[in-house]
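>> received
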Amino acid sequence: MNYYPHHIGDFNSATRHLTRTERSIYRDLIELYYDTEGPLTADMKALCRKVIARTDEEVTAVQQVLTEFFTETEHGWYQERCEKEIEKYHSNIESKSAAGRASAAKRANKTPISQQPLNRGVTDVQQPFNECSTNQNQEPRTVNQEPLKPEVIHTESITHPEYVELADQARVIPIKPGLAGACCKTMMSNGIHGCNPHHPTLLALLEAGATEDEFAYAARNAASKGNAKFAYVLGTVKRQREEAAKLVLHHGRLPNKQEALEESNRAATAGWMPPELRERQHAN
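>> returned
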């Protein structure tokens, strides 16, 4: 999750009796829960490291907050309110995705502009007052003012909410048929629950070039950590691809220190010449 609703009144009512350190720890634990979209790890040392709890007071605060506001399970520390918000978040995404698909299908069923009959010789100007017109205050416009472009839409791949705002002439690159379903089957075979082949994040990753092997590796990793959730796997693949995109690799053999120093010196002295030569050059 990229964001979550923070209800100030609810938070203050539930944490008014806590110390400032405990209130801060509670916020960090909640944000970590939403970021990973799953129960917090039961490994106390690892959990304290993630929320930067280093002093004895901070570690004690982590333990007290977990005991009071979370429930310990075999998969980690569970929080019912967080789970409901995560479910609501993904439900909202699914609703927007469904709206995007419906809008795309509606546009695809329209008759392309290139196939519509042209009313030759007639301009869309103001009509006489004795005819009921709704365009009497508009400027004259002829059919030759703008070129007509055919509508090119591939509905198989239009599933993202943001596609709703695309122009009718937008071109969408289709995903290989069945790839999303194959990735979901692979994740499910590795123990991942709630897989959805129409999920917008999954489709966006596939359009960016993500492979079935990437999802399989992320699924096995998530299952081994006890966080076998579809959203967690998508987040893992997304973060891995973002980190890989930031890498700038050196091509060829890496120079040693002496070679690097010599190259630096050559670059620094490339345009240098003695003062007398500079004066002679200017004189000429």
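>> Residues 179-245 form one domain.
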